[in-house]
Write a structure and sequence with these properties.
By secondary structure, this protein is α+β, with helices and mostly antiparallel strands. It is 26% helix and 21% strand. The chain has 14 helices and 19 strands. Strands 1, 8, 9, 10, 11, 12, 13, 14, 15, 16 and 17 form an 11-stranded mixed β-sheet that branches. A 4-stranded antiparallel β-sheet has the order 4-5-7-6, with helices on one face. A two-stranded antiparallel sheet has the order 2-3. Helix 7 packs across helix 10 and helix 12 packs antiparallel against helix 13. The longest helix has 15 residues. The N terminus is likely disordered.
Length: 524
């Protein structure tokens, strides 16, 4: 999954559907974040499930919308949320049937039934927003409903990962009477049936209050959450130390990891967990210098991930040699296996054999306000590594996220930095979204073995450990063709005052906030 929204929304949030008095219940737990949210031409509604495909928006949506299934507190197998029962009804994994819980209601008081579920998923496919999550449902043929509580998803081809896709906010259930069927919502609407309702949103914060209509499997340990927006990680840290916020979330800088994790910070606890966030360079494989495979391979032979991790991230991340991060069963160090340690001689030989003149001019574009303060250091390190070789004449260009995201998906850049937070913990989600026909990158790169053989084959296999060989082959193909260049794998961090409980459960494997886990003083 990729990316986060920046900017400002208009102050008040209308029609959020909360009951009078729903926000009562004491002081909110205040969570700091450097994320902001914007209304723009490319993102007219930051929390519309048909368009939002980034970890910041999903952190709000995961708490306010409901899905049929959700990921569990521990483990990876989906569990029920809006559904009381779900499962494949055929041996080929082509028909998936769910039964809704009884008494489901949206935050505006409207009844939620099977027609809303079908409408929601079909709407995502129909709108097919560029850079949006419709790619997750590319294999969905049609949705059938039986009465008010039965939904049957008919797939074009077998897909054992389909239950995982139903856990994502792409499958968020929206009110068919409140959302347009053929277009995105405009502005501030958010009507869901999740554990919280969005009570207010302005330039400084978003307030989420307990949704009295929620019927699902989650236990809420608080009645109100305030997400407070900061322009920098430094300002957020000051607020934590001054007790103006209770929890410090995205994005904690590498230097802060060391400071907040030291014994000197009494009253503050830093929670570190393994993460599946990855960072990579994406390439236009059709135009300009990066349209030549030898140029991309030479870059792969020069980039020193260990130095990037050391110099830009103070070793708070790990070098990554594949799109599939370590910790997932199918991980293979394909880039290291092919290119080994970085070296100028190998890169120079690659360019010479392809008849490419040097230095190769290249612009590396990154977003200045999306992935944290260390991104600029990372790209400065990349520029230096390429230039020091004498084989490249590289420059970097920083762009605000509101401009960067539509330009990247619109094919405006030749080499650019992106992050991906897996939608669900399976290698399929690190391969298919990048290389299917309508991939989220908008990339012209096509490999028919991955698209037509490996992805369909692995989706027939309900035993996911048995997909290791096929996904290993996919990673080797990526290392050969270099349509993307993996750089590093992140860890997950939250810092909190020591009276806040549940912090260790407040991030899922995709770095999406689970705010219902946070409590104050007792019971996490």
């Amino acid at each position: 999954m990729l990316p986060v929204l920046a900017g400002l929304l208009a102050p008040a949030l209308a029609a959020c559907g909360t009951e009078k008095g729903a926000s009562a219940g004491g002081d909110p737990i205040v969570v700091g974040t450097t994320d902001h949210f914007a209304v723009s031409k490319s993102a007219p509604a930051p929390f519309d499930p048909a368009a939002a495909y980034d970890v910041a928006a999903w952190s709000v949506m995961r708490n306010t919308f409901q899905t049929l299934l959700r990921l569990p507190r521990t483990g990876t197998s989906p569990v029920r949320d809006a559904a009381s029962r779900c499962g494949f009804t055929d041996a080929e994994n082509e028909q998936y049937r769910c039964t809704l819980r009884k008494g489901l209601t949206f935050s505006n008081g409207h009844e939620l039934d099977a027609r809303d579920v079908a409408f929601s998923v079909e709407r995502v496919k129909r709108i097919n927003h560029k850079g949006g999550p419709a790619v997750l449902f590319g294999n969905l043929d049609r949705v059938e409903t039986h009465g008010k509580r039965e939904i049957v998803f008919h797939l074009k081809k077998p897909d054992a990962t389909f239950p995982y896709k139903l856990t994502t906010p792409a499958a968020a259930i929206v009110d068919r009477r409140a959302y347009p069927a053929h277009s995105l919502t405009r502005g501030r609407e958010l009507t869901g049936s999740g554990p919280y309702a969005l009570d207010s949103l302005d330039a400084e914060s978003a307030v989420l209050v307990r949704n009295p209509h929620y019927r699902g499997g989650l236990e809420r340990h608080n009645s109100k959450i305030e997400l407070r927006f900061f322009d920098s990680a430094g300002a957020m840290e000051k607020a934590l130390r001054a007790r103006r916020i209770d929890v410090m979330g995205r994005t904690i800088s590498p230097g802060q990891v060391n400071r907040l994790g030291s014994a000197q910070d009494k009253g503050i606890e830093l929670v570190e967990q393994p993460g599946q966030e990855i960072r990579y360079l994406a390439f236009d494989t059709k135009h300009g210098a990066t349209g030549k495979k030898a140029v991309r391979q030479a870059i792969a032979q020069l980039v020193d991930r260990k130095k990037i991790v050391r110099d830009a991230y103070d070793r708070s991340t790990e070098p990554l040699y594949s799109l599939v991060p370590a910790g997932l069963t199918a991980h293979r160090n394909s880039f290291f296996n092919k290119y080994g340690e970085p070296g100028k001689k190998a890169a120079e030989r690659t360019l010479r054999r392809a008849g490419i003149d040097k230095p190769v001019k290249l612009t590396l574009t990154y977003t200045t306000d999306h992935y944290g303060d260390a991104t600029a250091k990372e790209f400065a390190a990349l520029e230096k590594q390429l230039d020091d070789s004498g084989l490249f004449d590289a420059r970097t260009k920083g762009v605000r996220w509101s401009e960067f995201r539509p330009a990247a998906t619109g094919g405006k850049y030749r080499a650019w930095g992106y992050g991906w937070y897996p939608d669900f913990p399976d290698a399929d989600n690190l391969i298919a979204p990048f290389f299917e026909k309508d991939n989220f990158l908008g990339s012209p790169y096509t490999n028919r073995e991955i698209r037509d053989e490996i992805v369909p084959q692995t989706r027939r296999q309900t035993g996911r450990a048995s997909t290791t060989g096929a996904f290993g082959r996919a990673q080797d193909i990526v290392a050969e063709d270099v349509p993307v260049l993996p750089l590093w794998q992140g860890k997950q961090y939250l810092a909190a005052r020591d009276d806040i409980t549940g912090v260790e459960w407040a991030l899922n494997s995709s770095s999406v906030l689970q705010l219902w886990e946070l409590g104050r003083g007792q019971g996490g």
